[in-house]
Hints:
By secondary structure, this protein is of the alpha+beta class. It is 28% helix and 31% strand. The protein has a six-stranded mixed β-sheet with strand order 1-2-8-7-4-5, with no helix packed on it. A hairpin with a 7-residue loop joins strand 1 (22-29) and strand 2 (37-44). Helix 2 packs across helix 3.
Amino acid sequence: MWSAFLDTVTIINRLFVFKPARITVNSVHRPSKERSILCMLTFYLDGPEFIELNKLLKVTGLCQSGGMAKTLIGNGCVRVDGVIERRKRCKIYPGQIVSFNEHHIRVT
């Protein structure tokens, strides 16, 4: 019985494995009174032609969990190409820029 269960778990794990993403970070100092730092992340999309917005925030580490990402998107805290995006599973394609909390993610 356990071997059948372990085989099922192995198959399920193989179906939902994501390729590790390559992410580079570039920090740019903005001239302002608060001396804030603008962080630009570059997310390299290798396999599929798009990534869902909530998964992008989770994979890049800007949100601790998928639930947190969905809540922030639903509250209008995330922008895609400068426009507030409230669709949690919005497809993000290469060339788009996602902005959240002084961080910008460029998908390539």
